């Protein structure tokens, strides 16, 4: 017996049957997409900004959101605004939102009117940088961050956090990235995302 419709037979073999016909490809990611610009280190302390950026992007990712670390860096300016490079890369990556982050030393910021924090009592800071107790009373760094809708010049969120001193700067900034991700996630949830 000779087949009259060999093409139809091939289509039936390739197509997986479901009650609605052939199964559709559902691998398209429909989550909200957030671009995270590389963190700008405006301190005298050496930081692994690429790792902190990756951690922030990983913590922003959820069932509803997908975050990607960008190649372009957050601006050096005190006023957190997207650079041309940030905007172009966010558009190319088809992101809905853009996150900018700077780590700064509040002591070196002349526009900060809050002044230094004063600790009364407790141990004096150790001159030995390897001393974990001395490290835990070091001065805090600030994490300044902003959330923008891609293409918008006005931030949806712009705030700062003081890192919580711990045994090392790396650990406290890692925890700071977690706190930043929580704050941004909370803001997006309030907006219905």
Please give a structural write-up:
- This protein is of the alpha/beta class.
- It has one domain (29-110, 129-190): TolB, N-terminal domain (Rossmann fold), CATH 3.40.50.
- Helix content is 30%, strand content 24%.
- It has helices spanning 6-14, 49-60, 84-92, 132-136, 169-190, and strands spanning 17-18, 21-22, 32-38, 40-42, 65-73, 97-104, 142-149, 155-162.
- Helix 2 runs parallel beside helix 5.
- Residues 7-20 and 110-137 have low confidence and may be disordered.
Give a brief rundown of this model.
The protein has 193 residues and is α/β, with parallel strands linked by helices.
Number of domains: 1
**For the record, what is the CATH homologous superfamily label?**
TolB, N-terminal domain
Question: Helix and strand succession?
Answer: HEEEEHEHEHEEH
Shape: globular
Structural key phrases:
alpha/beta; single chain; two-stranded antiparallel sheet; 193 residues; Rossmann fold; globular; 6-stranded mixed sheet
